[in-house]
Design a protein that fits this description.
alpha/beta; Rossmann fold; five-stranded parallel β-sheet; 15 helices; about 25% strand; binds cytidine-5'-triphosphate
Amino acid sequence: MSDPLRDKKIVFGVCGGIAAYKAVDLLRILVKSGAQVRVIMTRAAQAFVGPLTFEALSGHAVWTQLFGEQANAPFRHITWAEEADAVIIVPATANIIGKMSHGIADDPLTTFILAVRAPILVCLSMNVHMYENRLIQENVKRLERAGMTVLRPDTGLLACGDEGPGRLPDVEIMAEEVRSLLCAKDLAGERVLVTAGPTQEPIDPVRFISNPSSGKMGHVVARIARRRGAEVSLVSGPTVLPDPQGVSVTRVRTADEMFNAVMDIAEKATIIVMAAAVSDWRPVSLFEHKVKKEEIGQNLRFEQTVDILKALGDNKNRKILVGFAAETRNLEENACAKLAAKNLDLIVANLIGQADSGFGSDTNQASLFYRDGGNETLPLMDKGALADVLFDKVLEIKRKANDRIDSSLQ
Ligand code: CTP
């Protein structure tokens, strides 16, 4: 599956808040992802950023006036509304949500909004006291009741010097929300549990055993599952990656902690994707103080950690279980042995050691091995695209299993 933004028509409404400059970055991401973007600016927005910036980046004239020079297309609010695949309002100020929630139409943006039937994303940004005002909170609820998606502001230091909720969310988060609006919800009703990252098994307070997993694969699997409508839990080992938006995240350090977190969630999950690179060994005991180098040799003994995926496979029921195998040789033989030993439906295997595949990279070249003996080799693709393919395959496995049940009942 390609980026949901590709070739989509997005109408981008910019309002008059200090965060209007961030809308420029968001527009660049949307255009770079292949979207065709038309921009509408309110009068106040133009006091913060000039229309020329948005015109240059979108490649189209910006709509700023209902009457006057731009009135040569009197039904623009209707035609743009009909053509739009999605609409984003950024930053959505107290003023615009007040007008939108009460059906006021007195400028290009509000007039257009009333005619839109495509999904609308409202990205709030304002002073914390304005945001907490009961009238604003009620207006936000009205927008949600009208079917709009409202992205709540981030908490932090605001431009006015106050602290609290009010900051416009990160541009990547807003871009992901637009992708989510445009994406088919074919995982709706599924409860997906994903693990990601390495585990760390401490030796003493300053040393541990681990591996170079960056967590990118598992985090993107969680993001894509949520984008496609699943309820998603992510259990992540230590990584520098932020929590994916809309996903319930549990951060853990050791294999034992990951095991406990996974077992708490697994019972209710319908699909489990074990992308974590779990450490297979841990020191038998944890030293309270930093061990001196001359003592390490005599004192370091290891024991195996619990195999989380094997434990899940032993108790599989009707869940779909997906494993990962990073190998340096004998890819097929090793992957198929793990598929069988852990009772999996599918294993995603790749050879590590290549620059553009495996630990830390943004791309992956994987082969898929199935429970029924089938396999396929995928081309090099970015990890998001691989996550999409993976869920396409999981849905296929589920469909086949349901067909088998149906035909056995006939
Ligand atoms: N896995 C797990 N718990 C472990 C080790 C691995 O759940 N203690 C999972 C991984 O998340 C992955 C799959 O099992 O989905 C295969 O992991 P891998 O490390 O490749 O295989 P191992 O079974 O540990 O075998 P080996 O390290 O000997 O290759």
